[in-house]
Design goal:
alpha+beta; Immunoglobulin-like; 2 domains; 12 strands; hydrolase; DUF7382; protease; membrane; Carboxypeptidase regulatory-like domain-containing protein
């Protein structure tokens, strides 16, 4: 047995695979650390609630129209003091229309959408500027208002 230990001590081949194993372990470790840091930074994003707009009516016609837009959080609760911005998407709108939500989370705006020649439908875009000091955001797309020709 003592001879086997001496032979093992003289064997220098074992060191050959060690650097490759260390490099592989380092690469895997860095990849895992990157994934974990991404998850941790994602947790901070989860603390911010995404707002959504619920327009009424969702389908309208060209010409002067009143839209009532409710701003809600992910649980469906009304959000007051949010600024709602309505702009033209594929339907034309002369400028942008803005309004601030009341205590019940709704705002009523008057828009005058129009469609181009030979255009049978278009959309109006809705964006929300969350109230100051809250933990709300509006990064995802909101419900669009469909404008259809009469």
């Amino acid at each position: 047995m003592l001879d086997g230990l001496r032979e093992l001590a003289r064997d220098e081949r074992a060191i050959e695979g060690l650097p490759v194993r260390l490099v592989i372990a380092l690469v895997v470790g860095v990849a895992c650390l990157s994934v974990l840091l991404n998850m941790v930074s994602g947790i901070e994003g989860l603390a911010v609630a995404e707002l959504d707009a619920r327009p009424d009516p969702e389908v309208t016609t060209p010409g002067e129209q009143e839209l009532t837009i409710a701003v809600v959080d992910p649980d469906g609760h009304a959000v007051s003091d949010a600024t709602v911005v309505v702009s033209g998407g594929t339907a034309d709108l002369d400028g942008v229309v803005t309004g601030r939500t009341e205590d019940d989370g709704t705002v009523t705006v008057t828009v005058t959408p129009s469609l181009g020649p030979n255009q049978v439908e278009g959309t109006l875009e809705i964006a929300i500027k969350p109230p100051a000091g809250g933990s709300f955001s509006d990064h995802r797309g909101n419900t669009r208002v469909l404008v259809v020709a009469e």
